[in-house]
TrEMBL record:
Subcellular location(s) per record: Membrane
Organism: Tychaedon coryphoeus
Family designation: Belongs to the dpy-19 family.
One GO MF term attached to the UniProt entry: mannosyltransferase activity
Ranges that cross the membrane: 41-63, 176-194, 214-232, 239-255, 261-278, 309-326, 338-359, 413-438, 459-478, 484-506, 518-537
Main location (coarse class): membrane
Keyword presence, Transmembrane helix: yes
Name of the protein in its database record: D19L3 mannosyltransferase
Length: 713
């Protein structure tokens, strides 16, 4: 098992120019005095410099943490590769493969016709996995004159750490656009850094797809925020739409779960459009951009059927069709419009399900069925014995968000302020939505009640629904919290620096004056920044000074043995997580791997995992040989697992799926029966004749046992 131990000494935005109308340096006739224009230019310049500086500092910060945690510059290449855990190692292996290929063309051919990732099968890696970023980066490394100065692994990890700068700058700009002051962006970036445990995990899961994708998603949200501002010039709008499209495309290209994230985004747009809180024309463009971006990725991934069968495409097409059918959706009184809205929602829902069902039927698509089985079981729509669904249900990352997350977020004041701003803007949104639906926003009434009317700008309304929906996702699935917590920093800082928010509060307290609003708008964020700096700066310095070292001698020994004692064509079976490392470190062929978005692979993995079930040696040998297996690796950490409770251990999931009673004290379902055979991974170590005729132990250490399979006719 990989561990980290204490190190031993001895080894050697120009968008901000569109300022809110509350700016004090704007004359009543709408003209900006010369001094005010100069101040705006100076403010934008300083804000831009601060944004870039914070982005670069964040990159250096996470890169330093990664180096200090592993002593990455000092460990051997095999140790560096082992540090890319589970699926991270699989993705990085394709970058390594492209770098080591004789030519770019040969490297691409090896990915399109890959026969080493899944034994006895040839698969197209570019179709099955989102690895275009590895391809692009490897080509860039080969053509740039940097090979003498920078190792391939450093070019790779520095690119990912550099994307963190893009991420922080995008969050900064989004907050700045929402509030009208770059002080808000500064606060958002500081919160992102001080809440690093809950906002990113890039320093220890570098090649993970989300670390590539989330910076582009943040850029897309920033561009949407600017797009939703009023009074944009046609040229500005076109450029912003282009920026949204490029960011959407890159986000979709780099993460296989893109369609689910953008579906939530589409739901946010749909809700706001129904409540008449966003311009319909801009929402339509965003729907079209999502569809076109995803279809372009589909083409690049050789018409990946999982993309074509995505709920996002079905939903967006359904919304556009339903809107064409119901042309008078936004006319009439309150009850009339509510009735139309209910019919509209039902129509969109029915069309989405019908279109999606039709596409999946035509394409015979089953790649994502495990996700829906997991969701069905997770939200209580019936228990399941499905192995794949239970594999997700039992993983902590796919469980509910732990409560200690909120205590950590509260220690920086982030969660308290976020909750306060969320409450205020939710109340404002409800009032605005009711006014829109009831038709009480007529010009005469609006002029009469201008001083008292609660308003919510389109960009703020989008940010509100965005954070609510992604908050629900994070609460239900811990792994997705990084989509929520980063935007939480933006949303809280915007609320704290927003003229509209403080104006609303002071009016409710009958204390409103323009000068008082401006003083509070700047003084409270500055006090918050000072508090964060004094409280967390010493901790960050201590963290940066703590030196550790990568330590996993058993896995290193295993990888070195495989490279030295097995042929290059050998086929290995074992756990998904370990085999990803085997492919990266040794280049041997695998039977299965952690990229789980394929039905055949899921069935194959379940069969391979019978090595941890109660099956006869003959059955296990037959299963393994059917996949061309030459060697099988057994792990004590799985065979004698204690990390999960009874019912969630891998051996328990296999027993239940096979209809067998689970080990240990506890209840079993009544139809489960005792197995006729003992557990394979335990019994094989006794060297009984019934096992040695099929399996010969060729390697052993404290963690791993490797057996060579007999090749019976």
């Amino acid at each position: 098992m990989t561990t980290i131990r204490q190190r031993r000494v001895g080894k050697g935005t120009g968008a901000a120019e569109d300022q809110p109308s509350e700016e004090t340096n704007v004359k009543p006739d709408g003209k900006i005095p010369p001094g005010g224009k100069l101040w705006n230019i100076l403010s934008v310049t300083v804000g831009g410099i601060v944004a870039i500086s914070l982005g670069l500092l964040t990159s250096v910060y996470v890169a330093t943490l990664h180096e200090n945690d592993l002593w990455f510059s000092n460990i051997k290449e095999v140790e560096r590769e082992i540090s890319f855990r589970t699926e991270c190692g699989l993705y990085y292996s394709y970058y390594k493969e492209m770098i080591q290929a004789a030519s770019i063309q040969q490297g691409l051919h090896g990915l399109v016709y890959d026969n080493k990732t899944e034994s006895v099968r040839t698969i197209n890696i570019l179709e099955r996995m989102n690895v275009y970023q590895e391809v692009f980066l490897s080509i860039l490394y080969r053509i740039l004159p940097i090979q003498q100065y920078l190792e391939p692994v450093y070019f790779y990890i520095y690119t990912l750490f550099g994307l963190q700068a893009v991420y922080v700058i995008a969050l900064y700009v989004t907050s700045w656009l929402l509030s009208g002051t770059w002080l808000s962006g500064l606060l958002a970036a500081c919160w992102y850094i001080t809440n690093r445990v809950d906002t990113t995990r890039v320093e220890f899961t570098i090649p993970l797809r989300e670390n590539w994708a989330l910076p582009f998603f943040a850029v897309q949200v920033a561009a949407i925020t600017y797009l939703l501002r009023t009074h944009l010039q046609p040229a500005q709008e076109r450029l912003t739409l282009m920026a949204v499209f490029i960011a959407t495309f890159l986000f979709s290209l780099t993460w296989q779960f893109n369609q689910f994230m953008m579906l939530i985004q589409a739901l946010a747009l749909f809700i706001l459009d129904c409540l008449d809180m966003l311009p319909t024309a801009k929402v339509t463009w965003l729907y079209i951009i999502q569809i076109s971006g995803l279809l372009l990725v589909c083409v690049l991934q050789f018409f990946n059927s999982m993309i074509l069968g995505s709920l996002l495409i079905s939903f967006n097409v359904s919304v556009l069709i339903a809107r064409t059918i119901q042309k008078n959706l936004k006319k009439g009184g309150l009850l009339n419009r509510l009735g139309k809205l209910i019919l509209h929602v039902l129509l969109v829902l029915c069309l989405t399900l019908l279109i999606n069902k039709f596409i999946k039927k035509i394409l015979n698509l089953e790649s994502d069925e495990h996700i829906f089985k997991f969701l069905k079981a997770k939200f209580g729509f019936g228990a399941t014995r499905d192995f794949d669904a239970n594999l997700y249900l039992c993983e902590e990352a796919f469980g509910l968000l732990p409560l200690n997350t909120f205590s950590r977020l509260s220690s920086t004041l982030l969660f308290y302020i976020y909750g306060f701003v969320l409450f205020l803007l939710t109340v404002a949104a409800v009032i605005v939505a009711f006014r829109n639906l009831s038709g009480s926003n007529q010009v005469q009434l609006k002029e009469k009640m201008e001083e008292y009317t609660v308003t919510l700008k389109p960009d703020a309304a989008y940010s509100l629904v965005h954070t609510v929906l992604f908050g629900c996702l994070a609460l239900s699935t811990m792994r997705m919290k990084y989509l929520w917590t980063s935007h939480m920093c933006v949303f809280a800082s915007f609320g704290l620096c927003s003229t509209e928010v403080w104006k609303l509060i002071l009016k409710c307290l009958h204390l409103y004056t323009s000068q008082r609003t401006q003083v509070i708008k700047y003084s409270i964020p500055i006090i918050t920044l000072l508090y964060i700096s004094f409280k967390f700066w010493p901790g960050i310095m201590d963290e940066l000074s703590e030196l550790r070292e990568f330590y996993d001698p058993d896995t290193v020994e295993l990888m070195n043995w495989i490279k030295s004692n097995t042929p290059n064509t050998a086929v290995f079976a074992g756990s998904m997580q370990l085999l990803a490392g085997v492919k990266l470190c040794t280049g041997r062929t695998l039977t299965n791997h952690p990229h789980y978005e394929d039905k055949n692979l899921r069935e194959r993995t379940k069969q391979i995992y019978q090595i941890y079930a109660k099956r006869s040696p003959g059955e296990v040998h037959g299963i393994l040989r059917s996949f061309g297996t030459d060697y099988v690796i057994l792990e004590d950490s799985i065979c004698y697992e204690r990390r999960h409770s009874r019912g969630c251990r891998l051996r328990d999931l296999l027993d239940v799926a096979n209809g067998h009673i689970m080990d240990g004290l506890g209840e079993n379902e009544p139809d489960l029966k005792p197995s006729l055979y003992p557990r394979f991974c335990e019994e094989i170590k006794k060297n009984l004749p019934s096992y040695t005729m099929h399996f010969t132990r060729v390697f052993q250490n404290k963690t791993f046992h490797v057996y060579k399979l007999a090749k019976h006719k």
